[in-house]
Amino acid sequence: MSQHSVIGERIPKLDAREKATGRCKYAGDMRMEGMLYGKIVRCWEYAHAEVVKIDFSEARKVPGVVKCLGPKDVTKKNYNTTIMKLLVPAAFSDVFGEIADLNIFNGRVKHQGDSVCGIIARTEKAAERAAEKVKIEYKPLPVIMTAEESKKKGAIQFTPLKPGNLAANFPEAFFPNGEYGWNSPEGKTVHQKFKDADLVVEDTFYVPRQKQVQMENHSYVAEYDDRGRLTCWTSTQMPKLVQNLISELFELPLTRVRVIQSPIGGAFGCRLGMIGEPHVCAMAMAVPGVPVKIEYLREEDWVASESRASGHFHVKAGFKKDGTPVACYGDYQVLKGGYYTHGSGPPFCTAAFMHGMYKWQAMGCKADIWFNNMAPFGAYRGYGNPENTFGVEQLIDRACNQLKIDPIEWRKKWAKGIGDETWLKGVTYASTGLDDCIKQAKQKIGWDKKKKDYAKQTGVKRRGLGIGIMQHTSGAWPMLLEHSNVIMRMNEDATVEIMASVSDLGTGAHTAITQIAAEALGFPLEDVHIKCCDSDVNGFDIGAHASRTIYCVGRAVMQTADILKKELLDRAARLLQIKPEDLAFEADKEIVCTWDSSKRINIRTIADQSIYSFDDPATGKTIGIPGQIVAHYSDFVKHCSPPFAAACAEVEVDIETGEVKVLAFSNAHDIGKAIHPPSVEGQLEGGAHQGLGYVLSEDIYYDKNGLCLNSDFTDYKMFGASDMPPESHVTLVESAPDPVAPYGAKSCGESALMGPIGSVANAIYDAIGIQMTEAPITPERVLAAIKKNGGVKK
Amino acid sequence: MKKKSITLYINGEEHNVVVDVSDTLNHVIRNQLNRTDLKHCCGRGECGACTVLVDDDRYPTGRKAINSCMVLAAMMDGKRIQTVAGLEKNGKLHPVQEAFIEKGAIQCGFCSTGMIMKSVDILENNPKAKEAEIRQGLEGNICRCTGYTKIVQAVQQAGEVMAAKK
Questions:
Q1: How many CA atoms lie within 13 A of A296 on its CB side?
Q2: Any A CB within 8 A of B90 CB
Q3: A residues 247-306 lying closer than 8 A (beta carbon) to B
Q4: Do B69 and B104 share a domain, yes or no?
Q5: Counting one residue from A and one from B, how many pairs have CB atoms under 8 Å apart?
Q6: Domains of chain A (ranges plus CATH)?
């Protein structure tokens, strides 16, 4: 139908030019007349303390200070940063045990960096100086860092709402025995099923508290105007949901809350919910009619926003002699941090992604999530899947080693496929490109030859190869509500305004969605414009997470385009007096009769006449069909098309220094259809950077008093430009387009983190014969492991 | 707070400003001169997002890339400074900017302006810089989105254009 084939094209991103010139204005770049500056005063000295007294007297003397705000000066309503309760039925939320345990200014500090009070001043400098001069008297409380300390009888309780400091687990009401999983076909539990295994391997894995480290510091602007409307500019990932949360927190109807999504300088999950929005809005309401800006300092990011879940994840896997997977069990002891936020969300997904990967006959996972005095974990790209991958992928290689089975062949045989259940029960795979992914990843790294070359090694440098495979999700259904709204409005010149709440985190979503809209309508790219980022204009949407934007919003765009096109056909049919089924769209916006091409009308005519409706002076009859063409679709996606991926890594371990170098890395992703190939590649390349960091270098370190040791770029170790593997391959596998996905496109936003984790861990195992059960696999840990084992085991 | 009257030449434009002696160049350019093409990130010289080019005839190209958050504005009196906005000439972007756009080297964009300035510096010194040299040159610029792959490809492409022009 369409002659304007724009999907799959390597066009420049729509926002690339303004970002290359610096003209893109992030929230921190916003300047408004009379703007004031807000500073959140945080507790830096203690990870756990009662706030006894706040004395603003010295702070007030600083020139330029406008207001000092303590807990009494803002709403005392409790809140939770997340949107989880909005996206599950109320009954579920209650059963899962979500609590609202945060205040804008907290009377008890539960982690270093917790917010205590605030300053509003005429300049940033004045706000900073005044913040330093606030005298806060604290009563230190015992610091709890580990799960053991948290669950101990008599330990200080974080909140009366969660006795024993158990912030969350998988509730019995939904999960018998508090476990997510299923029994074997013959009715045996996972624990019984282990008895049927010839080989059981198990270990406890430590997974790190990785930080998103988006480059844009959290920055916000808010204004409470003369109409009593509260506007908040924020680079949140979910503007509509944050609008809801602000509305609830400040008890304003939605018509009086406007969220404008400013350009997002990276997110990776750390903007999934509210962070500084409550504070900036409270400050704006304290100075009505004047905009207030808050810009976090970089060092606030590590301690005052959420990170990945960390803790000790015990995994046990049972196999038959021939490799048949029999049972898999996980017991996760997770460190929540000081506040509930995402509760059991990520650990639940760890269990779910374990469920979705291999054909275990029985499976079970339980999780205990303990409060402690760290910044809370929240959402981070992969949402529990990295934690799953680090343990399971290594246990599989351990078993394959003992059973003398090739780890790649094992995965090909026992990974799930079409018709098998995905990460969530009751949802099955409709497509899989995993075999192609494995083939491509393996071939591009030169697996076979290198394996032979490294079969026997001596010397200080040992090389190894490893594979890691994964599946993730496309969209949040059925775990969460899936709902996107798209409105398409045809302008008088037959161009189309697409109103949809599409969050582009740097991912290229605005570009790809625009491509989908143009393709679906059959119009050139310049004839569609996407209007997003404004809650006044956009209908409901659950935001950018769960790798859903292309898969779900793209689909909603296509549905809406179909409605618009149907209206055009109906109008053409009436005007030409031909049945709609005898009409077809052709090039240059022509609608043509299929059996007589002289009978035709141009969409431009229909659009013009829809607006400029005049009566023919000669006949008195209305010319054309009046009424602006507006199509709307409210899409509740009820399917999921998980993408697969396979990654291979080649490492070199220096057995004297413990250093691990990644020499080569190859990732093949089951994308189905790449709508905007450079953006898909970008997600895979960037995801590799974060995955490599997870497995080799990144963690947030605290001292025994709960004070962060590495809250800066120097000491939080991420891979730099020279650290990335010198040989790197990214393959987009399009051989298995998904039948229900938009143009076959599955997701890619989160997936690329997992491949490096499994493949690098397994490559290290291949190189030195020892499995590293704590991530990140630092040189210190490698040396300690070699020493403990009395040398390398190969 | 002690103040000083200084003159800064930003992208060829003269600015006479009175600054606090403790103000960084980054702060003055962004907040006093209201030029937000220059970004602010760590404020401690760790991330490179605030990279600018400063004329300095001690260097082979006549200028040097610096983190604008790490110098005091008061010490830059009389200096000629280029921010990313100065790369564009009569609506035509610099080859580095064009390559970043074409190669898909920009995702969230927050590191991009600093990355572009540093890349300009690398290529002005050696438009035929090899991949390893480019990567080494960019070690002081942190990107969390791209994994550096397309950034390096863009710099290589821009280098070819610049070498051809020479």
A1: 25
A2: no
A3: 263-268, 295, 297-298
A4: no
A5: 175
A6: 392-472+641-788 (3.30.365.10), 484-635 (3.30.365.10)
- Token match 């204009």: residue? A537
Q: What is the mean pLDDT of chain A?
A: 97
- In a mutational test of the A interface, the residue from B144, B153, B155, B156 whose CB has the highest number of chain A CBs within 10 Å is B144
- Residue of A306, A750, A774, A780 with catalytic role: A750
Determine whether A295 is an active site residue: no
Report which of A150, A152, A70, A52 is spatially closest to residue A108, judged by C-alpha positions.
A52
CA of B164, closest CA in chain A: separation in Å? 22
Give per-residue pLDDT as tens, A567-586.
Answer: 999 999 999 999 999 999 99
Contact A721 B40 (CB under 8 A): no
End-to-end CA distance of chain A: 60
What confidence tens digit (pLDDT) does each residue in A85-126 have?
A: 999 998 888 899 999 999 999 999 999 999 999 999 999 999
CB-facing half-sphere around the CA of A609: CA atoms within 13 A: 18
Q: What is the CATH number of the domain that holds B27?
A: 3.10.20.30
Per CB-CB distance under 8 Å, the chain A contacts of B141 are 721
Count Cβ neighbours within 10 Å for each residue of A42-60 and write b for 16 or more, e otherwise.
bbbebbbbebeebebeebe
Indicate if B77 and B112 belong to the same structural domain: no
pLDDT tens string A514-533: 999 999 999 999 999 999 99
A509 contacts on B by Cβ (under 8 Å)? none
Domains of chain B: total: 2
How large is the average pLDDT for residues A756-777? 98
Q: Are A529 and A496 in contact (CB under 8 A)?
A: yes
pLDDT tens digits, A227-265: 999 999 999 999 999 999 999 999 999 999 999 999 999
Nearest chain A CA: its distance from B52 CA (Å): 12
Range of the domain at B71: 3-86
Q: A21, B147: Cβ pair inside 8 Å?
A: no
Q: Does A507 touch chain B (CB under 8 A)?
A: yes
ipTM: 0.99
Distance, CA of A393 to CA of A411 (rounded, Å): 10
Same domain, B19 and B56: yes
Question: Does B133 touch chain A if contact means CB atoms closer than 8 Å?
Answer: no
Task: Please give the helix or strand (H or E) that residue A316 lies within, else none.
Answer: strand A310-319
